[in-house]
Amino acid sequence: MSEVKFASNGDAQADVIIVGSGVVGALIANQMRDEGHSVLIIEAGLRINRAQAVENWRNMPLRNRAGGDFQGLYPQSEYATAPLYFPANDYVGLSGPNGSSFKQGYLRTVGGTTWHWAASCWRHLPEDFRMKSLYGVGRDWPISYEDLEPYYCKAEEQMGVAGPNDPEMQSPSQRSRPYPMDMVPWGHGDRYFAEVVNDHGFKSIPIPQARSTRPWNGRPECCGNNNCQPICPIGAMYNGIHTVEAAESKGAKVLAESVVYKIDTDSNNRITAVHWLDTDGASHKATGRQYVIACNGIETPRLLLLAANERNPRGIANSSDQVGRNMMDHSGFHCTFLTKEPMWLGRGPAQSSCLVGPRSGEFRSDYSASKFILNNINEVPGAATKALQLGLAGRELEAEIRRRAIHGVDLSISLEPLPDPNNRLTLSDTRKDKHGLACPDIHYDVGDYVRKGYDAASEQLRQIGQLFNAEEFNITTSLNANNHIMGGCIMGSDPSDSVTDGDCRAHDHDNLWLPGGAAMPSASVVNTTLSMAALALKSADAISQALSRDAQGATA
Ligand SMILES: Cc1cc2nc3c(=O)[nH]c(=O)nc-3n(C[C@H](O)[C@H](O)[C@H](O)COP(=O)(O)OP(=O)(O)OC[C@H]3O[C@@H](n4cnc5c(N)ncnc54)[C@H](O)[C@@H]3O)c2cc1C
Ligand code: SF4
């Protein structure tokens, strides 16, 4: 087992250097350590204390809590800025027809953004890998669903995913192994919703979730207290920190508050070092044999552009000029109404059932697929606001709050973007972070494919409203971000128009790996972290092989 070596000036040396400690970086670190390699993770953000973050949430002003300020409870390093919205900072500059639909939330902390995710763990469909061949839109992946399937299984195992084992309730049902844990049981609202809609051509199924339905790898069983976003107080929901801690317990080293900003390359364009800045602004260097950049869909392309050097003047891994292009997220909107029968939402995890009927079909050659999540979030704040607006007081106010909280439905609809090279991340000429590094700018247009998908989804929502004899039926018109950041280092078989190959290895640099959302050529319509995790594990196997070849080369 080899170990990380630190020099007296703080420089470091390891077999595998990983930048970013989110789920993607952590899974690779853990596997590399299992195989006996020395692993250094360099992480820009702070370490988080779960109990303190829960306290911070409890003590936040009501307007932040009711408005969904999921970032504010996590202490931020002043040297690793993340986007904030309560109040907003200008770290990510947004422009273009739909810049405001790309307001992403992500954390820069040890463990990354899954500290406050919803833990929905979907797989892409087999056809999502062949968008161009099947529907004539978007891009094909250089790998197939079958290539990634074993890694989906591995990711589900490592993240502890609970899902339905009845193939009728799965999407997709092409699986080589059952879910590690049985599905999170549905509450009354999930069951009632499915009963009403499923006989009418809709398909409400359980959401596979990285939540324990029995004790799992040190995580307790989910107790259903509905606080998943912004933090699970008891750690029943998987967070990247679980895997970071597993890797650390085996000897991986994590440097927190260390911002990587520079990447060295040799005459063969292999990576020879990455450099980071500490909180005093001092620069240090890490040298290794294989390098992984796992900083998420925005920070990975930003770092590659920031690190442009003499041999790679457009940025690292960017001979194709595709770094920063094809930015994607599932644009979303909401449908709300009151039902005649009580729904009793708000007990159990934040989301447990979803309509996936419109996930795929021939229509995808024309417009975007969609999926409708039944939010299981406590409706009391919205109900109280509305009841107060009605001017009620005393018992009448209380009764109206109860009625609205019990009968309220909030569906969260996601749409599928296509990769468009004009949806582009560049470096700001004017805004810099505290280390003086350029902030990201993103130009975004959701495109007509998504706009037409909105119209088609709205039609289906109106049918659903009728099935419930809905009162106060409303569909929101503006599109919101869903924090599933993709594109930016797109995968492909042609190095002239893509950044990585099917293992997420940079075409330009033999020993550089860019796994995660940035590499994904199609977004599907489902949350994509499980796909990012599967890609990370596929990269990990390819990195192992590269390390073995390095070792054989050294002994030959
Ligand atoms: C509110 C919310 C809910 C979500 N719910 C879901 C869900 O239900 N299902 C789902 O699939 N997805 C969900 N997501 C998305 C999910 O959280 C992300 O897809 C996932 O965290 C990405 O993992 P990652 O490891 O690629 O990046 P991250 O988790 O963002 O980690 C990247 C790490 O890299 C570090 N880093 C960045 N730049 C540097 C640098 N220059 N030097 C050193 N370190 C650096 C960052 O500090 C960060 O810790 C949600 C996201 C949000 C915000
Ligand atoms: S419902 Fe409660 S225990 Fe279960 S994952 Fe969410 S916050 Fe954790």
Describe it for me?
With 556 residues, this protein is an alpha/beta fold. It has a single domain (5-555), classed as FAD/NAD(P)-binding domain (3-Layer(bba) Sandwich). Helix content is 27%, strand content 17%. Strand 10 (259-265) and strand 11 (271-277) form a beta hairpin. Helix 1 (23-34) runs parallel beside helix 7.
Q: What's the SSE blueprint?
A:
Layout: E1 5-6, E2 12-13, E3 16-19, H1 23-34, E4 39-42, H2 50-58, H3 62-67, E5 93-95, H4 131-135, H5 145-159, E6 162-163, E7 181-182, H6 188-197, E8 204-206, H7 240-249, E9 253-255, E10 259-265, E11 271-277, E12 283-287, E13 290-293, H8 296-306, E14 332-338, E15 351-355, E16 370-375, H9 380-389, H10 394-407, E17 408-415, E18 424-432, E19 438-443, H11 447-467, E20 471-475, E21 512-513, H12 529-555
Parallel strand pairs: 2-12, 3-4, 3-13, 4-9, 5-19, 6-7, 13-21
Antiparallel strand pairs: 1-2, 8-15, 10-11, 11-12, 14-17, 14-20, 15-16, 16-17, 18-19
Helix pairs in contact: 1-7, 1-12, 5-12, 9-10
Bound molecules: flavin-adenine dinucleotide and iron/sulfur cluster (SF4).
Residues 19-25, 42-45, 70, 80, 105-106, 108-109, 112-114, 116-120, 229, 240, 259-260, 294-296, 299, 303, 483-484, 516-517, 527-530, 532 line the site of flavin-adenine dinucleotide (FAD).
Descriptive key words:
binds flavin-adenine dinucleotide, FAD/NAD(P)-binding domain, alpha/beta, 5-stranded mixed β-sheet, binds iron/sulfur cluster, 556 residues, 27% helix
Helix percent reads: 25-40%
Indicate the CATH topology: FAD/NAD(P)-binding domain
**How confident is the prediction overall: mean pLDDT?**
96
Stretches where pLDDT is under 50 for at least 5 consecutive residues are none
CATH homolog superfamily? FAD/NAD(P)-binding domain
Number of helices: 12
State the name of the first-level CATH class.
Alpha Beta
Fraction in beta strands: 15-25%
Number of strand segments: 21
Please report the distance between the alpha carbons of the first and last residues. Answer: 21 Å
Radius of gyration: 23 Å
Oligomer: single chain
